[in-house]
Amino acid sequence: QADLQFSPGGYDPEEEITPEADATSYNNFYEFGTGKADPAAKSADFNPRPWSIMVDGLVNKPAEFDLDALMALGLEERIYRMRCVEAWSMVIPWIGVSLAGLLDRVEPLGSAKYVAFETIVRPDEMPGQRGLFQPLNWPYVEGLRLDEARHPLTILSMGMYGKTLPNQNGAPVRLVTPWKYGFKGIKSIVRITLTEDQPASTWNRLAPGEYGFYANVNPAVDHPRWSQATENRIGGGGFFGSNDRPTLPFNGYGDEVAGLYAGMDLKANF
Amino acid sequence: MPLPALPKRFHAASIWALYGLGLLPAVWTFYLGATGQLIGNPVKIFEHLLGEWALRFLILTLAISPLRDLAGINWLRYRRALGLLAFYYVAMHFLAYMVLDKRLALGVIVEDIYKRWFITIGMAAFVALVPLALTSNRWSIHRLGTGWGKLHRLIYPIAAAGALHFCLAVKVIGPEQLIYAGLVTLLLGWRLVRPRYMAWRRSRREIKTGFARTQAQAE
How far is A133 from chain B (nearest CA, A)? Predict the structure, then answer.
């Protein structure tokens, strides 16, 4: 990974940052395998450079952005909590650009209501995408409402811990929406499309009763497999280094984002 | 091909060696976890390792009698150790969940068992294993007579529950879950086919010996 130049982004929960070794070795990235250690172990063949993202759909100026063009939008460091639907969490110093800044460049049409994202499909470089057993339908897809996508907290991350993203964390560019469960943070993005209708999202399509489109962190709505009331904060130091803590609504970003969902029943729209 | 038979004087020692080797993964991983050498989520890594070894020992326990039926290898002397190892791993799996993962928050544990199917099923399998472990000794075998065999047939639903627990615990069923579930299905399926297979083999043997007898008479 290369070092990155960035400015402070003004977000810091002032909680202990997860050790880099943990954040880069305990990952969900099914394109490289379903085990937590698979992404770090099996992503060495993946080439995140050169890269470009096509931004199209209901926009005035569809365009392709390469990494330099994306970084030119202004790299900032954002230290965010990250909460996985599996009831564990980390604190990660991301480096990225505001998604709103990118959307401004392509000038969304008035009819655009949603933003759809798509991950690359490269079976030759991604062992989870080849072979007899395919856990998910590729490409991995995700979506946000346009106002969620434009929210100041939403970034396209191109780095963490001062450097470019490691392959296992979604190199070269991934989505980060810190008030939502981690699976919304689609990795290795190749396409962003503005749409009028709510786009599909991979986990929601697989198990709609378990994973909603919104996937806002919500301690009051349990997942059938995990209580969401508490979370295990990953940290170094073995069996007793991590700690359990109560999960906060919107992962602690309620002041910033609760307004997006005013009047919505968050138990129905989970 | 016949395996070289282990001389009888080593039988007891080989069983103790199996206990020692069998417990090694748990001891070693506990050491790694306690000394901060498991990166990521050490508690889950340890918990899942214990669960997987429990399944492996359950499968090995179930494999002993088909191995004898089909390959003529008699490792019956290891079956108790394998079964008990499965029990020890299930018990450690539960303890790791209760103590390291849930930190003895009994309310949360009770809610888990009550609300989450995969935990309900896993818990039921653990409870069902207890009487089997308690009666895995010579005294109980004599004491219970034919009841012992009936009681120990509980191992079949327990193994099925263990495999199901593993499949339901993950977000998508992967090759690992399929392998374990497949092996358990095969081994349990064998129990259904076995009576017919044994009858067929017996009748074939009778035909052969009958044939030999008529031949001998003719000569």
Answer: 7
How many residues does the structure list for chain B?
A: 219
Q: Which of A37, A203, A239 sits opposite B34 (nearest CB)?
A: A239
The per-residue pLDDT for range A136-157, each reduced to its tens digit, is 999 999 999 999 999 999 999 9
- The verdict on residue B212 lying in a domain is no
Question: To which residue do tokens 């034919």 refer?
Answer: B146
Instruction: Tell me the ipTM for this assembly.
Output: 0.86
Q: Per the domain annotation, does B203 fall within a domain? A: no
- Domain of A34 in residue numbering reads as 7-258
Distance CA B93, CA A140 (A): 33
* Residue B62 confidence (pLDDT): 98
Beta strands, E only, A128-188: 141-145, 155-160, 163-164, 174-176
Cα separation, A31 vs A58, in Å, equals 29
Query: How do residues B7-26 score in pLDDT, each as one tens digit?
Result: 888 999 999 999 999 999 99
Whether the Cβ atoms of residue A53 and residue A189 lie closer than 8 Å to each other: yes
Which 8-state DSSP code applies to residue A31?
Answer: G
Q: How far apart are alpha carbons A116 and A142 in whole angstroms?
A: 6
Nearest residue of B to residue A23 by CA position? B40
> Could you tell me which of A87, A33, A84, A28 has the C-alpha nearest to residue A225?
A87
Terminal Cα distance for chain A, rounded: 36
The band of B174, judged by pLDDT with boundaries at 50, 70 and 90, is: confident
A30·B37 Cβ contact <8 A? no
Q: Which two tokens stand for residue A124?
A: 């030759």
The verdict on a CB contact (< 8 Å) between A34 and B174 is yes
Report chain A residues whose CB lies below 8 A from the CB of B52: none
Residue-wise pLDDT for A176-200, tens only, equals 999 999 999 999 999 999 999 999 9
Whether residue B208 is contained in a domain is answered as no
Record: contact A238-B39, CB cut-off 8 A: no
Verify whether the Cβ–Cβ distance B174 to A133 is below 8 Å: yes
Cβ distance of B116 and A225 shorter than 8 Å: yes
Quick one: closest CA in B to A241, which residue?
B36
- Beta A88-98 vs A230-233: how paired, if at all? parallel
Domain that holds residue B188: 8-194
Whether residue A267 contacts residue A221, with contact meaning beta carbons closer than 8 Å, is answered with yes
How confident is the model at residue B103, as a pLDDT? 86
Decide if A266 is inside a domain: no
- Domains held by chain B: number: 1
CATH number at residue A102: 3.90.420.10
Q: Which residues make Cβ contacts (< 8 Å) with residue A43, sequence separation at least 6?
A: A29, A32, A126, A166, A167, A168
Residue that has been written with the tokens 């299905």 in this structure: B185
Question: Which residues are within 8 A (CB) of B21 and not within 5 positions of it... i.e. 6 or more apart?
Answer: none
Interface size A-B, in CB pairs within 8 Å, comes to 71
